[in-house]
Amino acid sequence: MKFYSTSDPTHQVSAREAVRLGLAPDGGLYMPVQISPLPSSFWSSIRARSYEELALEMMHPFFGEGLSRESLYGIIQKVCQIPIRLVRLGDVHLVELFHGPTHAFKDVGARFMAELLRAYQEYEDMELHILVATSGDTGGAVAAAFHGQEGIRVSILYPLGGVSAVQEKQLTTWGDNIHALRINGSFDDCQRLVKTAFSDPVVTNHTRLSSANSINIGRWLPQSIYYSEAYRQLSTESQTTTIAVPCGNAGNISAGMVAEQLGLPVDRWIVCSNANDVLPTYLSTGHYQPKRSIRTLANAMDVGDPSNFVRMKILGGSTWNHVKERMEGHVVHDEEIIHSIQDTYQQYQYLLDPHTATGWAGMHHFEGSRNRSSRLVMSTAHPSKFEEIMVRALGFSTEPAPHLKRVQQLPGSWISMEPTYPQFREYLMG
Ligand SMILES: *Cc1c(COP(=O)(O)O)cnc(C)c1O
After folding, report:
1. Residue 64 located in a structural domain
2. What CATH number has the domain bearing residue 286?
3. How confident is the model at residue 370 (pLDDT cuts 50, 70, 90)?
């Protein structure tokens, strides 16, 4: 399968090249040239298959070239070790995606990408240096996935004072090939340093640089597998689904739309945003207007110009008229996030993290028909990652998730840096 750039459809590369480059050189995003539905027998017999089998069938068309079926299956087995659990609350199923090493859904895509690069890297003689700017969850998931991997070095740039205490531990306690850079600036400064490095020929001729955000097809596409896994786990009574997704850069939801194009039956997509409302505004007005991001309780979704918007639009049918047939958006403000956490706890003794709470609230704004369609809410993080907010909403602290307990005991180490490019460049060249 070839991948084209959304800025120039005639520019096409292999999966391997697209993973290596992340963003296309012309600034576009890579998209598969074709997404063909899997045979209907695949979907009708899905409950007789394993998670690994269905993931292999879904990913093989995209990554099967230049990789044996066995190698791909090996990658998928590792990814499927992260359990996907359905929890039913009333007429909604939460799809818990947070049982990986950093307790956020990003572990799934990050692990796939790490294993894929491990397979590709066998043919390389030069170290690959992955740069990640993070405002929280991405850095940790990437660090966990790449830790100890030969031939790959990871540098994570994060803003001083801009991540939670737990998140900082998840960035700084790895050692070995994982390096944390604490930038005396904002997340935007971190992102600018990374972008400048990618466009600096002196640096790119000296080292092989790559990125690991949700732009990268190696992280983005595999996220489609858990949508089908959730469907597989549903009891047989319903044939279709309505799916609510807490959105930031829209990587998760657009991966779900890939699963839909492969044949997953979806009635409607519910785009759930926090006060950063560009996606719901687009869906209701047809105007896409990037904004500066504002801080909310669901901080991993504080995005003012979602990088995967183009993918979401193409997969939704390219024009607003088509897209709005398939999807609707809801804005969930901080107060409603708090209320959702409180209500769900009172009614079901279940703890929603602030991101999942936007999905929950968004689903409850949906007014479509209730029959036939199963309602799924993508649950993106474990509540104990957001301890302060949980205490604020509920008045008590929550039991830390298993991997968080351990990491909290470990000493962190990092390199402090000013947000000026010369210092970062020296680091990269050293
Ligand atoms: C990254 C993240 C999101 C947003 O996902 P996108 O793919 O950027 O839309 C939602 N919730 C959590 C917990 C996250 O870490």
Report:
1. no
2. 3.40.50.1100
3. low
- Kindly state whether residue 257 falls inside one of the protein's structural domains: yes
Q: What is the pTM of this model?
A: 0.94
Instruction: Choose among 105, 122, 120, 174: nearest CA to 146.
Output: 174
Residue 269 falls within a domain, yes or no? yes
Q: What separation in Å is there between the alpha carbon of 393 and the centre of ligand 1?
A: 21
Number of domains in the chain: 1
**Positions of E strands within 162-320:** 178-183, 208-211, 240-246, 266-273
Ligand 1, residues 249, 257, 274, 303: which to mutate, most atoms within 8 A of Cβ? 249
pLDDT confidence of 126, banded at 50, 70, 90?
Answer: confident
310-355 pLDDT tens trace = 999 999 999 999 999 999 999 999 999 999 999 999 999 999 999 9
Q: Answer whether 252 contacts ligand 1 (Cβ < 6 A).
A: yes
Work out the end-to-end distance of the chain between its first and last CA atoms, rounded to an integer number of angstroms.
Answer: 37
Residue 417 has pLDDT above 80, yes or no: yes
**Which long-range contacts (C-beta less than 8 Å, at least 24 apart) are formed by 401-405?**
401/98, 401/103, 403/101, 403/102, 403/103, 404/103, 404/166, 404/170
